[in-house]
Amino acid sequence: MKIKLMLISVMLAAGFAHAADPAEGLWKTIDDKTGNTKALVQVTEKDGVLSGVIQKRINPASDICSDCEGKFKGKSLKGVQVFTGLKKTSDGYSGGTIVDPKTGKSYRMKAELSADGKTFEPHGYVGIALIGRTQTWLRAE
After folding, report:
1. Residue 32 is inside which H or E element, if any?
2. Sequence-distant (≥ 6) Cβ neighbours of residue 102 within 8 angstroms
């Protein structure tokens, strides 16, 4: 009986140790300039590192990015990995890289998740984090 209880305790502890990161899930990206929803991004965690992939663009005339510059010009944005390398820290997430599909440029990235888990704020920057651009993404229901 004691052995069974110990095994159950160990299995439960292992399950909690591998619990999903609270930022994982589907997010609606909101354009910080227009306030419009742009896309749905699936955020996943592997080995403590978050990454995000575009699952769907919202209201595109087509899925082909004709306005983009660089490596995304004329290509579908569905399936594009928009960020990678983001790791949980004591005050949010940092250490990632985010790509602006319109320009094809990559930026250093940090992010914050709201206490209620309903908003995710990726911040892309060059040099120091004080200068950069922040978006607010909303958890897709």
Report:
1. none
2. 65, 67, 68, 69, 72
pTM of the predicted model over 0.90: no
Residue 12 within a domain:
no
Model pLDDT, residue 103: 80
pLDDT at 14 over 50: no
Tell me the pairing of strands 105-113 and 119-125. antiparallel
What CATH number should be reported for the domain holding residue 121? 2.40.128.520
Contact 138, 118 (CB under 8 A): yes
Are the C-beta atoms of 36 and 42 separated by less than 8 Å? no
Instruction: Report the domain count for the chain.
Output: 1
Q: Is 34 helix (H, G, I), strand (E, B) or coil?
A: coil
